[in-house]
Amino acid sequence: MLQRPVEPRQYTSLAFTEALLGAGIAGSVGSVGDALDNALMESTIGLFKTELIDRQRSWAGRAAVERETAAWVHWFNTDRLHSSIGYRPPVEFEDLYRHTTSTPALEVA
After folding, report:
1. What distance in Å separates the CA atoms of residue 94 and residue 58, rounded to the nearest whole number?
2. In whole angstroms, how far apart are CA 71 and each of 2, 51, 59?
3. Residue 69's closest CA among 81, 56, 85?
4. Residue (of 70, 73, 86, 74) closest to 44 by Cα position
5. How far apart are CA 86 and CA 81, in angstroms?
6. How many whole angstroms from its chain centre is CA 75?
7. What is the share, in percent, of the chain residues with pLDDT greater than 70?
8. Ramachandran region, residue 64 (left: φ > 0; alpha: ψ -120 to 50; beta: rest)
9. Are 29 and 10 contacting, i.e. CB atoms less than 8 angstroms apart?
10. pTM score > 0.85 for this model?
11. I need a surface site. Which of 14, 37, 41, 104 has the fewest CB within 10 A?
12. CA atoms of 44 and 46, how far apart (whole Å)
């Protein structure tokens, strides 16, 4: 006999939501079945698998995967050129954005 899924609706972790709020981050959760919310993450995971995971025939263990993943994320954010942002690395693009976007000065009481 087939059983129904344990959670038939979209599930958002309360702990995750609280962590986002604590960090001052606005969460983005789409409607059930809405692929647009996941498109960027799925694209990044695809790049990760293509550029790192699939290039290694076997891994020495979990520690090796974790170490290489951290190195890949650092490279992805600081050195990899992204065509969608003018063939710049994200860290450079963000620095440029911060320097060209005016922010109101904080008043000290």
Report:
1. 35
2. 43, 12, 15
3. 56
4. 73
5. 8
6. 14
7. 70
8. alpha
9. yes
10. no
11. 104
12. 5
Q: pLDDT (tens digit, 9 = 90+) per residue, 5-49? A: 555 454 567 777 788 888 888 776 655 555 555 777 788 899 999
**Position with higher pLDDT, 86 vs 36:** 86
Kind and range of the H or E element at 19?
helix 14-22
Tokens, residue 102? 């005016």
- C-beta contacts of 101-106 below 8 A and 24+ residues apart: none
Amino acid at 9: R
From CA 82, how far away is CA 30, in angstroms rounded?
A: 26
Structure tokens at 107: 């008043």
